[in-house]
Design goal:
By secondary structure, the protein is α+β, with helices and mostly antiparallel strands. It has seven helices and seven strands, in the order ββββααβββααααα. It folds into two domains: about 120 residues, no CATH class; about 70 residues.
Length: about 200
Amino acid sequence: MASSFYLGKVTRCSTRGFVGAVRLPEAELPAFGTFCRVDAQQGQSTVVGVVYNISIDDDEFARQMASADALPVEELLDNQQNRQVPVEFACISVGYQREGKYFYNLPPQPPLTLASIQTLETQAMVEFTGQLDFIPLVLSEASIPADLLLAEILRSAAAARAESRRNTYLIEAGRMCARYLGGDLARLNLIIDRIRQ
Protein backbone atom coordinates (compact mmCIF):
# COMPACT_ATOMS: atom_id res chain seq x y z
CA MET A 1 0.00 0.00 0.00
CA ALA A 2 1.33 3.42 -0.98
CA SER A 3 2.06 5.82 1.82
CA SER A 4 1.33 9.53 1.85
CA PHE A 5 3.80 12.07 0.49
CA TYR A 6 4.01 15.85 0.29
CA LEU A 7 2.51 17.47 -2.83
CA GLY A 8 2.81 21.19 -2.11
CA LYS A 9 1.23 24.11 -0.28
CA VAL A 10 -2.18 25.74 -0.74
CA THR A 11 -2.05 29.03 -2.65
CA ARG A 12 -5.77 29.63 -3.30
CA CYS A 13 -8.80 27.92 -1.82
CA SER A 14 -12.57 27.81 -1.50
CA THR A 15 -15.03 25.22 -0.25
CA ARG A 16 -15.31 23.87 -3.83
CA GLY A 17 -11.60 23.19 -4.14
CA PHE A 18 -8.07 24.44 -3.72
CA VAL A 19 -4.95 25.19 -5.71
CA GLY A 20 -1.51 24.14 -4.60
CA ALA A 21 2.00 24.92 -5.78
CA VAL A 22 5.22 22.96 -5.73
CA ARG A 23 8.60 23.62 -7.28
CA LEU A 24 10.39 21.23 -9.60
CA PRO A 25 12.25 19.02 -9.29
CA GLU A 26 10.33 16.84 -6.86
CA ALA A 27 10.57 13.10 -6.45
CA GLU A 28 6.81 12.80 -6.83
CA LEU A 29 4.64 15.22 -8.78
CA PRO A 30 0.87 15.46 -8.76
CA ALA A 31 -0.92 13.64 -11.57
CA PHE A 32 -4.42 13.97 -12.99
CA GLY A 33 -6.76 12.08 -10.65
CA THR A 34 -4.41 12.00 -7.63
CA PHE A 35 -6.28 11.91 -4.32
CA CYS A 36 -4.97 14.35 -1.74
CA ARG A 37 -5.79 15.73 1.68
CA VAL A 38 -5.27 18.99 3.51
CA ASP A 39 -6.24 20.04 7.03
CA ALA A 40 -8.92 22.68 7.59
CA GLN A 41 -10.78 24.24 10.52
CA GLN A 42 -7.56 24.40 12.57
CA GLY A 43 -7.15 20.64 12.27
CA GLN A 44 -10.75 19.76 13.13
CA SER A 45 -11.39 18.42 9.63
CA THR A 46 -9.43 17.15 6.64
CA VAL A 47 -10.55 18.08 3.14
CA VAL A 48 -10.29 15.30 0.56
CA GLY A 49 -9.51 16.55 -2.94
CA VAL A 50 -8.65 15.19 -6.37
CA VAL A 51 -6.20 16.84 -8.79
CA TYR A 52 -7.96 17.87 -12.01
CA ASN A 53 -5.48 20.32 -13.57
CA ILE A 54 -1.71 20.80 -13.55
CA SER A 55 0.05 23.80 -15.05
CA ILE A 56 3.59 25.15 -15.22
CA ASP A 57 3.89 28.91 -14.89
CA ASP A 58 5.22 31.07 -17.67
CA ASP A 59 9.02 31.18 -17.62
CA GLU A 60 10.91 33.90 -19.52
CA PHE A 61 14.12 31.86 -19.72
CA ALA A 62 12.26 28.82 -21.11
CA ARG A 63 10.62 31.01 -23.78
CA GLN A 64 14.02 32.32 -24.83
CA MET A 65 15.42 28.80 -25.03
CA ALA A 66 12.37 27.58 -27.00
CA SER A 67 13.05 30.17 -29.71
CA ALA A 68 16.61 28.91 -30.22
CA ASP A 69 17.24 26.79 -33.32
CA ALA A 70 19.11 24.06 -31.50
CA LEU A 71 19.70 23.42 -27.82
CA PRO A 72 22.62 21.52 -26.38
CA VAL A 73 21.37 18.47 -24.49
CA GLU A 74 23.06 19.71 -21.30
CA GLU A 75 21.12 23.00 -21.34
CA LEU A 76 17.82 21.24 -22.03
CA LEU A 77 18.33 18.78 -19.16
CA ASP A 78 19.47 21.58 -16.84
CA ASN A 79 16.30 23.55 -17.57
CA GLN A 80 14.00 20.55 -17.15
CA GLN A 81 15.65 18.91 -14.15
CA ASN A 82 17.67 21.46 -12.16
CA ARG A 83 15.82 24.77 -12.41
CA GLN A 84 13.19 25.54 -9.83
CA VAL A 85 10.12 25.73 -12.09
CA PRO A 86 6.85 26.35 -10.24
CA VAL A 87 4.10 23.81 -10.85
CA GLU A 88 0.51 24.65 -9.92
CA PHE A 89 -2.17 22.00 -9.45
CA ALA A 90 -5.89 22.49 -8.93
CA CYS A 91 -8.06 20.12 -6.87
CA ILE A 92 -11.78 19.65 -6.55
CA SER A 93 -13.14 18.97 -3.05
CA VAL A 94 -14.92 15.60 -3.03
CA GLY A 95 -15.56 15.33 0.71
CA TYR A 96 -13.98 15.72 4.10
CA GLN A 97 -13.16 13.75 7.21
CA ARG A 98 -14.04 14.78 10.74
CA GLU A 99 -13.66 12.71 13.91
CA GLY A 100 -12.70 9.66 11.86
CA LYS A 101 -15.80 9.75 9.65
CA TYR A 102 -16.02 10.68 5.96
CA PHE A 103 -18.63 13.12 4.70
CA TYR A 104 -19.46 13.33 1.00
CA ASN A 105 -20.21 16.99 0.75
CA LEU A 106 -18.37 20.28 0.43
CA PRO A 107 -16.31 20.99 3.54
CA PRO A 108 -17.63 23.49 6.12
CA GLN A 109 -14.53 25.65 5.56
CA PRO A 110 -11.69 25.60 3.05
CA PRO A 111 -8.11 24.97 4.11
CA LEU A 112 -5.94 28.00 4.81
CA THR A 113 -3.28 29.27 2.44
CA LEU A 114 0.12 27.62 2.86
CA ALA A 115 -1.46 24.53 4.43
CA SER A 116 0.47 21.39 3.50
CA ILE A 117 -1.13 19.17 0.85
CA GLN A 118 -0.42 15.44 1.12
CA THR A 119 -1.46 12.54 -1.06
CA LEU A 120 -4.14 10.28 0.38
CA GLU A 121 -2.74 6.91 1.48
CA THR A 122 -3.99 3.96 -0.57
CA GLN A 123 -5.95 2.45 2.33
CA ALA A 124 -7.59 5.81 3.10
CA MET A 125 -8.51 6.18 -0.58
CA VAL A 126 -10.09 2.72 -0.56
CA GLU A 127 -12.08 3.65 2.56
CA PHE A 128 -13.17 7.01 1.14
CA THR A 129 -14.26 5.55 -2.22
CA GLY A 130 -16.07 2.68 -0.49
CA GLN A 131 -19.11 4.95 -0.53
CA LEU A 132 -19.91 6.27 -4.00
CA ASP A 133 -21.54 9.45 -2.72
CA PHE A 134 -18.67 11.58 -4.09
CA ILE A 135 -19.86 10.91 -7.66
CA PRO A 136 -22.50 13.70 -7.80
CA LEU A 137 -19.98 16.23 -6.47
CA VAL A 138 -17.64 15.47 -9.36
CA LEU A 139 -20.38 15.35 -12.00
CA SER A 140 -21.83 18.69 -10.91
CA GLU A 141 -18.60 20.65 -11.56
CA ALA A 142 -19.14 22.17 -15.01
CA SER A 143 -15.85 24.10 -15.01
CA ILE A 144 -13.61 21.01 -14.92
CA PRO A 145 -13.23 17.89 -17.11
CA ALA A 146 -15.62 16.11 -14.74
CA ASP A 147 -16.36 13.03 -16.85
CA LEU A 148 -12.71 12.24 -17.55
CA LEU A 149 -11.80 12.94 -13.92
CA LEU A 150 -14.55 10.69 -12.59
CA ALA A 151 -13.45 7.85 -14.87
CA GLU A 152 -9.85 8.23 -13.61
CA ILE A 153 -11.04 8.31 -9.99
CA LEU A 154 -13.06 5.13 -10.45
CA ARG A 155 -10.24 3.33 -12.27
CA SER A 156 -7.79 4.24 -9.49
CA ALA A 157 -10.24 3.23 -6.78
CA ALA A 158 -10.85 -0.13 -8.44
CA ALA A 159 -7.13 -0.76 -8.98
CA ALA A 160 -6.47 -0.14 -5.27
CA ARG A 161 -8.84 -2.94 -4.30
CA ALA A 162 -8.25 -6.67 -4.22
CA GLU A 163 -8.51 -8.11 -7.73
CA SER A 164 -11.61 -10.10 -6.78
CA ARG A 165 -13.45 -6.86 -5.84
CA ARG A 166 -12.49 -4.64 -8.79
CA ASN A 167 -15.17 -5.67 -11.28
CA THR A 168 -17.93 -5.54 -8.65
CA TYR A 169 -16.81 -2.07 -7.60
CA LEU A 170 -16.88 -0.75 -11.16
CA ILE A 171 -20.34 -2.23 -11.79
CA GLU A 172 -21.67 -0.52 -8.65
CA ALA A 173 -20.00 2.74 -9.70
CA GLY A 174 -21.49 2.45 -13.21
CA ARG A 175 -24.95 2.02 -11.72
CA MET A 176 -24.47 5.10 -9.55
CA CYS A 177 -23.36 7.11 -12.59
CA ALA A 178 -26.44 5.90 -14.50
CA ARG A 179 -28.67 7.24 -11.70
CA TYR A 180 -27.29 10.73 -12.23
CA LEU A 181 -26.73 10.62 -15.98
CA GLY A 182 -29.72 8.59 -17.14
CA GLY A 183 -30.85 11.52 -19.29
CA ASP A 184 -27.39 12.08 -20.79
CA LEU A 185 -26.26 8.84 -22.38
CA ALA A 186 -23.36 10.50 -24.21
CA ARG A 187 -21.74 11.51 -20.89
CA LEU A 188 -22.51 8.16 -19.31
CA ASN A 189 -21.03 6.24 -22.25
CA LEU A 190 -17.88 8.38 -22.17
CA ILE A 191 -17.32 7.56 -18.49
CA ILE A 192 -18.01 3.83 -19.01
CA ASP A 193 -15.69 3.71 -22.04
CA ARG A 194 -12.87 5.44 -20.14
CA ILE A 195 -13.28 3.10 -17.16
CA ARG A 196 -12.82 0.10 -19.47
CA GLN A 197 -9.51 1.36 -20.87
